Amino acid sequence: MKLLTLAAGFATGYVLGSRAGREAYEQIVTQVRQVRANPTVVKAQEKAADAVAAKVHEAAPKAAAPKTAAPKAAAPKPQPPRRPATAAGPQ
Predict the structure, then answer these.
(1) How many CA atoms does the CB half-sphere of 56 hold within 13 Å?
(2) Residues 24, 14: contact at Cβ < 8 Å?
(3) Which of 44, 58, 61, 91 is the most buried (most CB within 10 A)?
(4) Which stretches within the chain are classed as H helix?
């Protein structure tokens, strides 16, 4: 899967940075379509989609369940005592 991601990134960079024109673009598009039609790639995509669906199915009840109790809030931090104001102002 990492190799496929690397190849896709390389192809995208080449297309975006290519000065070879439309012919190079068409060649890359053809190669990408061939890779996507490869049975091994199709199986990997289906396997990944099934794994995601299973995790979503597993997590959905947990996400929908109401919370039983709110988490306790932290106790307020004690403030240092304030100095009384003087008529002369700060020293």
Answers:
(1) 6
(2) yes
(3) 44
(4) 2-17, 22-37, 39-64
Asked if residue 11 lies in contact with residue 28, where contact means CB atoms within 8 angstroms, the answer is yes
Instruction: Report pLDDT digits (tens) over 9-64.
Output: 888 777 777 666 778 778 888 998 999 999 999 999 999 999 999 998 888 877 77
Q: Is-contact 5 41, C-beta < 8 A?
A: no
Residue owning tokens 């794994």: 51
Q: How many angstroms separate the CA atoms of 11 and 14, rounded?
A: 5
Residue with tokens 């379509």: 33
Q: Do residues 6 and 13 touch, judged by C-beta distance below 8 A?
A: no
